[in-house]
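Hello Y.,

Per our agreement to keep a running log of every chain we model this quarter, I'm adding this entry. I've kept the format consistent with earlier entries: sequence first, then predicted structure.
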Amino acid sequence: MNREPYIAGDWGTSRLRLSLCLGECVIETRQGAGIGALREPAAEALRPLIAGWRQTHGSLPLLLCGMAGSRNGWRETPYLPCPADLRALGEAALRFEADGAPVAIAPGLSCKSRLGSPDVMRGEETQIAGALALHPSLGIGHHLLCLPGTHTKWVCLEEGRVTDFLTALTGELFALLRDGSTLTQAARAGTGGESSDARSATGDTENGFESGLEAAAALGAASLLHALFAVRSRQLIDGRSHEWALAYLSGLMIGADVRGAMPLFAARAEAVLIGDSALNELYAQALRREGMTASCLDGEQCALAGLRTLWRT
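Predicted structure for the entry above:
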């Protein structure tokens, strides 16, 4: 492996995570605004964040994934159509020079989903490439991957190749309903029919999430649309707290996401979760209710490992 330092960045819609790396070691990390929050060109927003590193270490190579390659990002990077072998991700990266230093932006992926519509991802493909690098056994046989987040991705991986995937708007829809709807406003935070101390709030969260999963499991022929208003009515009539309602909404949406994906990816006994540890555990809980086992991989570690594949190329 090249032993020179480099900068690896996961630039999403809401956040930029930068790491100064040497081989597989992270020396320092920094954060900045996501692509969706920029009020200036991406290159100008990035420059002051890495200036100190470049003053110390010279013209460091910069490796990016995520929305940096979108049409609203730094430079649009073409999608790599599926089936795609992500062990060779670096070959499809967009490479250029900026401020006298080499830059590589990972491509996104595109496919026709199992619902028959076009689907795309940016950033998750690099996490999958990193998972393959860290866990070579994933490159053998068939695997179902789930990358929970703002736009949760369900991914079919066969012999190290992404054959197709499906996006669920779970995280974004949860945030919209939490912040912009009446569903969680019936009880003020820390109030309701139960005690508002920290221990009770924790219990509310755990019980609310489990109740949401149960409600999703009981939907039958009904849809998520028919179940959502109970988030509000259970506060009004049952005296549930704000914390309970938020957790219930989360359980209802994650449960519906998992139950909706299972028939589309049949005959799978296990799913590999790649993401934030807390969110991974919530999805693992939902998967266990469906009789599936789940193994969890850290999303940031996988993203860094995937970006290293660009550095090796």
